[in-house]
Amino acid sequence: MPSPRYTREIPSRYRLEAGRCKGCGKVTYPARTICPSCRGEEIEKINLSPRGKVVTSTVIHVPPDDFLMEAPYAMAVVETPEGARLMTQVVDCEPSTVLPGLEVSLEFRLIRKEGKSGILCYGHKAVPVA
Amino acid sequence: MAGIVGYGAYIPRKRIKADEIALQWGKNPETIKRGLLLQEKSVPGFDEDTITISVSAGRSAIARAGIDPQKIGALYIGSESHPYAVKPSGTVAAEALGIGPEVHIADFEFACKAGTEAMFVALGLVEAGRVDYAMGIGADTSQGAPDDALEFSASAGGAAFIFGRDDMVAEVIETYSYTSDTPDFWRREGEFYPRHGGRFTGEPAYFKHVLAASRAILEKTGLKAEDFAYAVFHMPNGKFPMTAGKQLGFKKEQLDTGWVVPTMGNTYSGSSPTGLAAILDVAKPDDLILITSFGSGAGSDSFVLKATKRLPEVQGLAPTVRSMLDGPRQYVTYGEYAKFREKIIVNE
Ligand SMILES: [Zn+2]
User: Fold this and answer.
1) Which residue among A98, B11, B253, B259 is the one 20 to 30 A from B239 at the CA level?
2) What pLDDT, in 10s, does the model give residues B184-219?
3) Do B95 and A10 touch (CB under 8 A)?
């Protein structure tokens, strides 16, 4: 069965929709209803820029079952120009070259397949900027 | 009058060289490279499919058009490799592109012609005034059977075009379609690899339809080959489009820009549309452009376009085809290629 959570997360996964607190300007991804820094409840919807910088990274050699064929691959925390941080795979490059400070673009990619006959789950992955 | 208001393309960064495939099957790479005029081809990663290619190309098209995606009233994706057998590629792509829910969506399929089919219908709806903007996309991640000639060509990529009536970057002057029932290439439901009629794919299929459609649109418009700055024909290999172009009276200089197949491969529904995108990347105002697609089964769609003075203003707003072909590439071995294309049987 397709997970209801996947459907609920489509705006943030597909369009990088995030929330910005009207009180203090804090950007949260995915959007939250209450600001984690000032407890403000007025949150406006924004779309993150599809690019950012690697804050920290690691190389996965022993992945979960769905990603067995992809190992080894790089995972990173990427910060967008709006200050939002997201955890994402970094692809189309040598995993060991993914280091803090690396400039990346965020591209729409297939994240995982729910088994052989289930739904396809899409979202964003990071790719080093040429 | 209607035409293209924005366009974009996408080609995966993974590539495999023709030599690598030839060596796997004990073939002489030089024979392949000389015979088919193919050097390398794009390979989709595990995470790239017709939907992700459509979204990347579509985002570039929206960036160049400079329009609110909510104004796009129709979205059509043509492909022979839609990821789902049942469930549209278009709904996923629309959601990612910020189009809809007020939008008409359909997935098209017509072997390699599905992309220009999507463009044809998108243009028609805009001309009719039914919608203000419509997007037509051709994208594929096609498979050739191991050790089949198609394995040297079947590649991944695509292009997206937004049609509208204002602020065009290229006007559509005329269209023409030529279709007949021709069993040159097919894949039955449930089969993994396509089959083809070998030599039958040349004269009675590709050349018959491409030449008929191109000749008819030239006659319909009263234009001659020498009136055009550029022409692009469907590229199943390097040789066919050059031969067709020359038979129609086009010179190499008119064909070179759109002839992206030697290093991209045949992106099926994305083939001639990506060639057109490569032409739009460099065309100048008032340049005339001819595009003729071909889809097995079989048919050809032709369009005559004229670049406007807005085109040079948008060329730099998204990655060019050339920058993706010549930019960062990741070469894979045949073993890695077999893994990426899921040709290897693994335990569940
Ligand atoms: Zn706040």
Assistant:
1) B11
2) 888 888 888 888 887 667 888 999 999 999 999 999
3) yes
Token digits for A56? 């920290």
Structural domain A4-128, CATH architecture: Beta Barrel (2.40)
For ligand 1, the distance from its centroid to the CA atom of residue B74, given in whole angstroms, is: 39
- For residue A111, the distance in angstroms to the closest alpha carbon of chain B comes to 6
Q: Which of B20, B40, B48, B80 is catalytic?
A: B80
Q: Which amino acid is at B1?
A: M
Whole-model pTM: value is: 0.97
List, in order of start, the domains of chain B with CATH numbers: 3-169+312-340 (3.40.47.10), 172-310 (3.40.47.10)
Burial A115-126 (b: 16+ CB within 10 A, else e): eeeebbbbbbbb
Comparing alpha-carbon positions, the chain B residue that sits nearest to A107 is B56
Q: Which candidate from A50, A109, A130 shows the least CB-CB separation from B52?
A: A109
**What are the helix and strand counts (H, E) for chain B?**
13, 14
